[in-house]
Amino acid sequence: MIHLFTTGGTIDKIYHDANSEFTVGDSLLPELLEEANVTVPWRVTGLLRKDSLELTSDDRQQVREAVAACPEERIIITHGTDTMAATAAVLDGTPGKTIVLFGAMQPARMRRSDAAFNLGFAVAAVRLLPAGVYVAMNGEVFEAGKVRKNLKAGRFERD
């Protein structure tokens, strides 16, 4: 069983007008998993609905506690890309679990989004990787504490 936690971020954003006003909406994860015909048992728990720049240390602690308390050993967390590496670092050292954080550069509701690909990649990664904390984005896996987002290039890199 894979347990997916949602925290918000671009993947779940809904843009309301041309001025880029947005809210974080309901997660599309269940729909994306069903469309992809994922047959591995999974469940989704919504934790937060925030842009990652708004996440606090208390929020990150809430994520860590939820992951530690769940019985599943395979965990996927949706997260905004701007502070994903910081949350991965907080989760690092969680014993006995394989934890994969992923997000999207464009909302899942948009036609040209990387969300579905990144979700599929995260599902594969969480099933294949050993216990530890990872960031899986755009076809690459990075270990917690060894990754950063390159804002200029719009991608993740080894730190």
Main sheet specs: 6 strands, mixed
Number of domains: 1
CATH top-level class: Alpha Beta
CATH homologous superfamily title: L-asparaginase, N-terminal domain
- Can you give the mean pLDDT? 94
How many H/I helices? 4
What is the third-level CATH name, the topology? Rossmann fold
Number of beta strands: 10
What's the architecture, going by CATH?
3-Layer(aba) Sandwich
Rg (C-alpha, Å): 14 Å
- Low-confidence stretches are none
The H-and-E topology, N to C, reads as: EEEHEHEHEHEEEE
Structural class: alpha/beta
- Give the % helix: 25-40%
Beta fraction of the residues?
25-35%
Q: Strands of the biggest beta sheet: in what spatial order?
A: 4-1-5-6-7-8
What is the terminal-to-terminal distance?
Answer: 31 Å
Shape: globular
Overview of this structure, please?
By secondary structure, this protein is α/β, with parallel strands linked by helices. The protein has one domain: L-asparaginase, N-terminal domain (Rossmann fold). The chain contains 4 helices and 10 strands. It has helices at 29-35, 57-69, 84-91, 115-128, and strands at 2-8, 13-15, 22-24, 42-50, 74-78, 98-102, 132-137, 140-143, 147-150, 155-158. It has a 6-stranded mixed β-sheet, sandwiched between helices. The chain has a two-stranded antiparallel sheet with strand order 2-3. The protein is globular and about 45 Å long. The relative contact order is 0.19. The mean pLDDT is 94. Its EC number is 3.5.1.1. Keywords: Hydrolase, Membrane, Transmembrane, Transmembrane helix. It comes from Marinobacter lacisalsi. Residues 2-150 form the L-asparaginase N-terminal domain. GO terms for molecular function: asparaginase activity.
